[in-house]
Design brief:
The complex is a heterodimer of chains A (272) and B (403). Chain A is an alpha/beta fold and 272 residues long. Chain A has helices spanning 26-38, 58-69, 74-86, 99-105, 107-116, 133-141, 156-165, 189-199, 213-222, 230-241, 248-271, and strands at residues 14-20, 44-47, 93-96, 121-123, 145-146, 149-150, 170-173, 204-207, 225-228. Chain A has a single domain (13-267), classed as Aldolase class I (TIM Barrel). The chains are: A alpha/beta (272), B alpha/beta (403).
């Protein structure tokens, strides 16, 4: 069965956190993933470290470096998701990987591994619709959801094509530029999300720049889900840096509290 | 000027090229492709471009017979296409003038560019000064230190130089950062890429703006010798001077040789020979040959010449190599320096270290060929910018890769 089927009917806005695989260790990523699930994550995005992350801002670039230093790579990250499953992770998991990493490991091999280790979807930030046909077909044949992106600059004509092709969920980039926290979103997002929802039968989620409960609240009124990456990664990094080795569990609990406060406020406001 | 947008799958040269960019940039690439096509069909734009190339940059550049080199080597006749005599000292200005005029035509007010050694940055800053656009140049912090002279030149020309601290802090990272910046400012900013690299339509645009090198070479050879050259040789980093001189000869029986930087030797890891030693992958928006590890992480190139120090290569070169239409050789740091000294002493021309790679291969070829053959070497830039590097290498008596 497809784990994405369970999220479609959700009433509350979907919470879609992003973690970098192996930042700074595999065990940390597994622990944080389980905490995020316990705190209500609906889908988990797992980033793969890459030398040239063109779509990412400074926070994820740094996370990518730490993960790379720890020896993480695409194949190990997929295997790591298998371990998360063994430890009780049941929500859909999406790989966020640059295209060159897929090419070098071999696209067929990647989808085989994803099937074997129960990874549900794939998102490739540097592979636009026009270049993605073969991998979309490959994903389809392996029951993997290929999650496309749209941006405020996407033309109407392309938006329709992309929204119709979406599986799992549709990723709307909320701002121009790269991933990272910011205080204002692009003025076109409301129109964009509305258009996208009309042409897509999967949830429409917004990402790039969401960092505060207020923003979570604001954004979740507009769409079906919110992707949060940089602010979680920055917080985890800060908490870890501020704790000694003996306090490992403490910083993870602090991270849990941070996630809880982020969601509580946003979700409460939305359900009013 | 004739434009040939590659056609099979969009923006492909065989299996190479394409548009591997974040979605945010797709509309800008569409807009750019359309604007470039329209500009190249607009006689007033072409006249303005030609006027500027003549009156401002000093084109046509001469084709110089290297008589002393030819006699000394005793083989094929050697001709030098003198791109070093352009305004700002290299072929880079051909592209910068064309793209900045295009930016202006598209009503963009800001230009952003990446630069390695600073030659492209200086060319863009120059064109922006002349045509009244603001200019931001991203440059790896490593390169900012290595090339402080060019940093100051760009600042004198009114450009803002932004040091890049991400990744390895060199050209590859400056390119990443310029693209990231562009993604955030795409609505009013034009990205002026410096070589035949990047997503479609850039490799085609830059090639078409550099074709003037080959077009002039062809008519100069015909005027002079009433025949085409047997061989054309040019250095290849991203490969814009080479694409520019090769392209008008693709359908002729002319041998085309590209020269990559072998650095300390292709048997070491210290080189920048993407075609000769690299594998197929995607970087900076296009599929091409790259220097990368087996996982797809891009590795650091090395060359004494900052202009060849790039881990990829233009996708059309990748295609010309795969199809066999052009061949690609490598020249080490030491061979390039030797050729640079030889040309300086024999002809009174100090070439850029980049161009010296083409010269080194050209001298080898000339010596092994008959006197009835002719070879054109693209002298892509002058060596003034390299003098401090040369002092350290030649007078210091040791190779110091940190220069």
């Amino acid at each position: 069965m497809n784990r994405f089927d369970c999220i479609k009917s959700s009433e509350k806005p979907l919470f879609i956190p992003f973690l970098m695989a192996g930042d700074p260790t595999e065990k940390d990523t597994i622990d944080l993933a389980l905490i995020l699930q316990e705190e209500g994550a609906d889908v988990l995005e797992i980033g793969i470290p890459y030398s040239d992350p063109l779509a990412d801002g400074p926070v994820i670039q740094e996370a990518s470096k730490r993960a790379f230093t720890s020896g993480m790579n695409l194949e190990k990250a997929i295997q790591m998701i298998g371990k998360m499953r063994e430890e009780g992770l049941h929500i859909p998991v999406v790989l966020f990987t640059y295209y060159n990493l897929l090419l070098q490991l071999g696209q067929q091999h990647v989808v085989d591994l994803m099937n074997r280790y129960s990874v549900d979807g794939m998102l490739v930030p540097d592979l636009p619709f026009e270049e993605s046909e073969s991998i979309r077909n490959l994903c389809k044949a392996h029951h993997i959801s290929y999650i496309p992106l749209i941006a405020p600059t996407t033309s109407q004509e392309r938006l329709v094509k992309i929204a119709q092709s979406a599986e799992g969920f549709l990723y709307c980039v909320s701002s121009l530029g790269v991933t990272g926290e910011r205080s204002v979103f692009h003025p076109e997002i409301q129109r964009m999300v509305k258009e996208a929802s009309m042409h897509s039968d999967v949830p429409v989620a917004l990402g790039f720049g969401v960092s505060s409960p207020e923003q979570f609240n604001e954004i979740s009124k507009l769409c079906d889900g919110v992707i949060i990456g940089s602010s979680l990664i920055r917080k985890a990094d800060e908490l870890r840096a501020g704790s000694s080795k003996a306090e490992t569990q403490d910083w993870k609990e602090s991270f849990r509290n941070f996630v809880r406060s982020l969601l509580l406020e946003g979700v409460q406001k939305v359900s009013n | 000027m004739e434009t040939t947008i590659p056609n099979e799958k969009k923006g492909r040269f065989g299996q190479f090229g394409g548009q591997f960019v974040p979605e945010t940039l797709m509309f800008a690439l569409e807009e750019l492709e359309k604007a470039f096509k329209e500009a190249m069909e607009d006689s007033s734009f072409l006249e303005k471009l030609e006027h500027e190339l003549v009156e401002y940059s000093g084109r046509p550049t001469p084709l110089t017979y290297a008589q002393n080199c030819t006699e000394q080597l005793g083989g094929a006749s050697i001709y030098l296409k003198r791109e070093d005599l352009n305004h700002t000292g290299a072929h880079k200005i051909n592209n910068a003038i064309g793209q900045v005029l295009l930016a202006k035509r598209m009503n963009k007010t800001k230009v952003v560019a990446e630069t390695g050694a600073g030659q492209h940055g200086v060319a863009v800053a120059t064109a922006c000064a002349r045509y009244g656009l603001s200019c931001k140049v991203f440059m790896g912090e490593e390169d900012v230190h290595r090339q402080s002279l060019n940093v100051f030149r760009m600042q004198l020309l009114g450009a803002e130089v932004i040091p890049v601290k991400s990744g390895s802090m060199t050209l590859k990272d400056a390119t990443n950062e310029a693209i990231r910046y562009w993604a955030g400012a795409v609505q009013d900013t034009f990205y002026c890429i410096g070589s035949v690299v990047g997503p479609h339509p850039y490799p085609t645009i830059v090639r078409d703006l550099q074709r003037i090198i080959g077009i002039e070479t062809r008519s100069q050879m015909l005027d002079r010798l009433n025949k085409l050259p047997d061989t054309i040789i040019a250095c290849v980093g991203g490969g814009s001077n080479a694409m520019g001189i090769f392209h008008p000869f693709l359908d002729d029986p002319v041998e085309l040789i590209g020269v990559e930087a072998a650095g300390l030797g292709t048997e070491t890891e210290k080189h920048a020979a993407s075609i000769t030693k690299g594998t197929v992958g995607v970087l900076h928006g296009s599929m091409t040959y790259l220097m990368q590890d087996s996982f797809g992480q891009i590795t650091e190139p090395y060359s004494i010449s900052a202009g060849l120090d790039y881990p990829g290569v233009g996708p059309e070169h990748a295609h010309l190599s795969e199809s066999g239409r052009a061949t690609y050789h490598t020249i080490t740091d030491a061979e390039a320096i030797e050729a640079l000294q030889f040309l300086s002493e024999k002809e009174g021309i100090l070439p850029a270290i980049e161009s010296a790679h083409a010269l080194a291969q050209g001298f080898k070829e000339a010596a092994s060929r008959g006197r009835d053959e002719t070879i054109v070497i693209c002298l892509s830039g002058r060596g003034d910018k390299d003098v401090s590097t040369l002092i350290k290498i030649i007078k210091g008596g040791e190779e110091d890769e940190s220069v």
